[in-house]
């Protein structure tokens, strides 16, 4: 597939981040994306760059509400040996079409990201680019791009030209009128092709959340998506956020689904939904095994904290091997968590991976009140609103990146936590934000997302 996140070809994965609410050239909510380049020492002292639709070679122009950076993903689309950054702009106006949305690629190269091309544009109120996933759905060795809006799903098959033209394009039909909530990609059945995983709610029942799977094949993604079923034969309870990765150290990618919203009627029938819950679904030769799902919340043994209404446990999810033992940990954001009497200061929980998936045993967490963590516990910071696990220094362990988009009245900020042989640690963690980046801070929502 080529380098997944190494934009400058130095051998170290890089971290891309988003501030979709940022003011650019005076336009509120135009948005920007940034990159912190990895190195032998990680990203603490490395070069950091910001890109907007006013940057040289980037398509489009900044406009109020574009939300450039609604989603970010990375892969080597043009097969030149450098990863490229795919950026969604859910509020982009296309001609006279309001909030049509669009998807742009910023090209990687020896000097890092520079210039770009348009990949996709939506139709009125599509919100295309709200969610993104990249994967090799047809197994030809070149990455493909999945762009999603509220209803729309567009698959672009690589390779891509430098003009942003894909080898082919397909719109996946939405036969059941579901509403997309998040998308991810990975090889869920071990056949060498990536598969699409998404969470959605039913069009006429907003609290009926399901997990949908589209298996890759020789022709890429087909027109049909199927719902993951639970032990009772009905749709497995889904959520609003999804990640794909190998938690149990077998040959199949697994699913981690965060169900952060706990205020719907159906949640009253799910005790584990209180405060939000995390559902783990192992992969297999036939795809995700919903009958073997494991569900955890903050009342589960070993999991830090306590389940409280509106904690939003599961508002962000990421999978990565933080200690190098071959098992993937699951990072779970809890941005609605109160710290003492401070409302919605936020936090993040790490669930260790085992052969049985996450058990809760050995779990630990971070917040801005944790010793050695920069910052202070403040109301509505929403620390944990976004999370990523990525090996930024090439040591085989994934560091943790955390966003707090509510920091300082929605200015937002970012944290990075080191990975060690025993897992993630607060000592040596650091934060950076608008002061480092030289950007307009007001309502920027920095830390709303990271590249997948």
From TrEMBL:
Pfam families documented for this protein: FG-GAP
Gene3D superfamilies: Integrin alpha, N-terminal (2.130.10.130)
Protein's organism: Streptomyces anulatus (Streptomyces chrysomallus)
Domain of life: Bacteria
Protein name (Swiss-Prot/TrEMBL): VCBS repeat-containing protein
GO cellular component: integrin complex
Keyword Oxidoreductase: no
Keywords: Glycoprotein, Hydrolase, Repeat, Signal
PANTHER family: GLYCOSYLPHOSPHATIDYLINOSITOL PHOSPHOLIPASE D, PHOSPHATIDYLINOSITOL-GLYCAN-SPECIFIC PHOSPHOLIPASE D
Lineage: Bacteria, Bacillati, Actinomycetota, Actinomycetes, Kitasatosporales
InterPro entries in alphabetical order: FG-GAP, Int_alpha_beta-p, Integrin_alpha, Integrin_alpha_N
GO molecular function: hydrolase activity
One GO biological process term: cell adhesion
